[in-house]
């Protein structure tokens, strides 16, 4: 729901209810008379403004593909990683797609691997020292678990979910076969920390529900003048935000939030904006109504009501 539509719906409902109270079918000639009225304390009930939230998985997919490209891992030393005798470079071969179910993202990243293996063997009668370059293609599977925390942090944890070869390397040095699994495991172990860290960072930047809800939170606190015919103002004071847990379905991340607020209407001067500085933490709940409910507290002083009645009724005949 767009912010302008949200305000329109609220104002239409509130204003129509307010103005209906001034209809009549009799001739009225009011006399100007000072009347005193007692102030009655009324407990205002919070209103609830329902806001569905969703993020298209394809937007996350497109963002990751655009930023995770080219060479994504480099190891130019035989001596690092506990002297693994392996140099390794990894490139993303092609774009990939993401699927979502419940609170998990699943995807496969096709990679091209270049490796240089240093083989050493010093045993009685055998003295081998050679380097061999290897080219291969592999698909690494990843799975990202996600959840929205009360402080608005979008928590993600990406882990490897296995691999499958597109093009298996064939290596033979002096009659010794280099195991394919050694290259795959090394590629996974050495590159996955770098890749998963990049993916987590990009997803957290893209999925920012606090940034999405902020315009609604601020807009609801702006005083609204629904009509120039009356010096009427409507003011909402947000109290808290309730939300369902974030879930994935139909290629979207979805949740439903409700902003609890106090709503009042009054006649008089435009009130100042007393915006709450910080958006509060989320209060999670298992169920939320998918409709909005407005409880409007109307506060009109007698002088304002008297002036309005004069404009409406004096020297007018209703039939």
Describe this structure in words.
The chain is an alpha+beta fold and 319 residues long. 26% of the residues lie in helices and 39% in strands. It contains 6 helices and 14 strands. The protein has helices at residues 3-19, 57-67, 80-83, 180-206, 209-219, 302-313, and strands at 47-56, 71-75, 86-92, 98-101, 104-123, 126-148, 154-167, 172-173, 176-177, 232-243, 247-249, 252-267, 282-284, 296-299. The strands form 3 sheets. Strands 1, 10, 11, 12, 13 and 14 form a 6-stranded mixed β-sheet that branches. Strands 2, 3, 4, 5, 6 and 7 form a 6-stranded antiparallel β-sheet that branches. A hairpin with a 2-residue loop joins β8 and β9. α2 (57-67) crosses α4 (180-206). The protein is rod-shaped and about 120 Å long. Residues 1-9 and 13-39 have low confidence and may be disordered.
Short description:
By secondary structure, the protein is an alpha+beta fold. It is 26% helix and 39% strand.
Helix content: 25-40%
Low-confidence stretches: 1-9, 13-39
- How would you sum up the global shape? rod-shaped
Structural class: alpha+beta
How far from one another are the termini? 42 Å
- The strand count comes to 14
**How many alpha or pi helices?**
6
Main β-sheet description: 6 strands, mixed
Radius of gyration: 33 Å
Mean pLDDT: 78
Question: Which key features would you list for this structure?
Answer:
single chain, alpha+beta, 26% helix, rod-shaped, 319 residues
Note the topology.
Layout: H1 3-19, E1 47-56, H2 57-67, E2 71-75, H3 80-83, E3 86-92, E4 98-101, E5 104-123, E6 126-148, E7 154-167, E8 172-173, E9 176-177, H4 180-206, H5 209-219, E10 232-243, E11 247-249, E12 252-267, E13 282-284, E14 296-299, H6 302-313
């Amino acid at each position: 729901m767009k912010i302008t539509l949200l305000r329109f719906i609220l104002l239409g409902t509130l204003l129509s209810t307010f103005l209906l109270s001034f209809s009549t079918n009799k001739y009225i000639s009011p006399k100007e008379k000072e009347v005193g009225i007692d102030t009655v304390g009324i407990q205002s009930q919070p209103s609830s403004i329902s806001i569905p939230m969703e993020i298209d998985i394809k937007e996350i997919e497109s963002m990751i593909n655009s930023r995770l490209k080219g060479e994504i891992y480099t190891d130019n030393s035989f001596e690092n990683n506990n002297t693994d005798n392996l140099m390794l470079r990894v490139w993303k071969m092609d774009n990939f797609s993401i699927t979502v179910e419940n609170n998990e993202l699943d995807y496969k990243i096709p990679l091209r691997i270049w490796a240089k293996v240093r083989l050493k063997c010093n045993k009685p009668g055998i003295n081998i020292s050679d380097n061999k370059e290897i080219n291969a293609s592999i698909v690494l599977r990843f799975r990202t678990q996600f959840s929205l925390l009360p402080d608005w942090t979008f928590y993600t944890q990406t882990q490897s979910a296995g691999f499958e070869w597109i093009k298996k390397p064939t290596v033979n040095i002096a009659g010794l076969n280099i195991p394919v699994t050694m290259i795959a495991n090394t590629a996974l172990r050495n590159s996955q920390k770098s890749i998963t860290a990049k993916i987590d960072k990009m997803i957290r930047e893209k999925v920012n529900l606090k940034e999405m809800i902020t315009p609604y939170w601020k807009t609801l606190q702006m005083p609204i003048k629904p009509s120039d015919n009356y010096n009427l103002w409507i003011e909402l004071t947000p109290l808290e935000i309730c939300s369902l847990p974030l879930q994935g379905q139909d290629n979207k991340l979805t949740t439903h939030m409700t902003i609890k607020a106090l709503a009042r209407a009054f006649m008089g001067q435009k009130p100042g904006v007393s915006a709450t500085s910080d958006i509060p933490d989320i209060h999670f709940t298992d169920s939320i109504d998918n409709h909005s409910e407005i409880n409007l507290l109307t506060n009109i002083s007698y002088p304002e009501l008297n002036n309005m009645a004069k404009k409406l009724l004096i020297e007018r005949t209703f039939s």
